């Protein structure tokens, strides 16, 4: 796992356990560079960051799979959305991609992000939190934990794993 964020590690662990419940998985987090900006502002950048993290984690850990998660923002029309991109890569270099759900980001938050802040910093400021990105995250804060960051990432990892669940179709 190309991150030491406990929310991301747990999301990966839960996803792999759900997809392959009869196997025992050890999810290890390592710090790797995403190769993109600290606050990705497009799907292209989010996908690139997730793939870079997955490949670099696999190289560092010599594991069966490398997983990368990259949260980011995307402008669609006149609105900005928050979304997490997830990449899973195996030893053969095959890549599975998935994403979390997308949620609109209010313009007041976007204005603060455009001053150079990351979404996590803005969340902490507006919600009076400390390090929300390693807890409920944007999704949890906006939905009062009906949907947490971990749940969104878990589902996105499962979507990315479809590449390996149904390999004959790829």
Description:
- The chain has 170 residues and is of the alpha+beta class.
- It is 43% helix and 19% strand.
- It contains 6 helices and 4 strands, in the order ααββββαααα.
- The chain has helices spanning 6-19, 43-61, 107-113, 119-127, 137-143, 149-165; strands at 65-76, 79-90, 95-99, 103-105.
- α1 crosses α6 (149-165).
- The longest helix has 19 residues, at 43-61.
What layout of secondary structure does this protein have?
Blueprint: H1 6-19, H2 43-61, E1 65-76, E2 79-90, E3 95-99, E4 103-105, H3 107-113, H4 119-127, H5 137-143, H6 149-165
Helix pairs in contact: 1-6, 3-4
| Overall tally of structural domains | 1
Beta percentage is: 15-25%
As residue ranges, the low-confidence spans are: none
Alpha-beta content class: alpha+beta
Task: Compute the CA-based radius of gyration.
Answer: 16 Å
CATH class: Alpha Beta
Count of DSSP-assigned helices = 6
In short:
This protein has 6 helices and 4 strands, in the order H-H-E-E-E-E-H-H-H-H. By secondary structure, it is of the alpha+beta class.
List the keywords:
Maf protein; single chain; 170 residues; 4 strands; 4-stranded antiparallel sheet; 19% strand
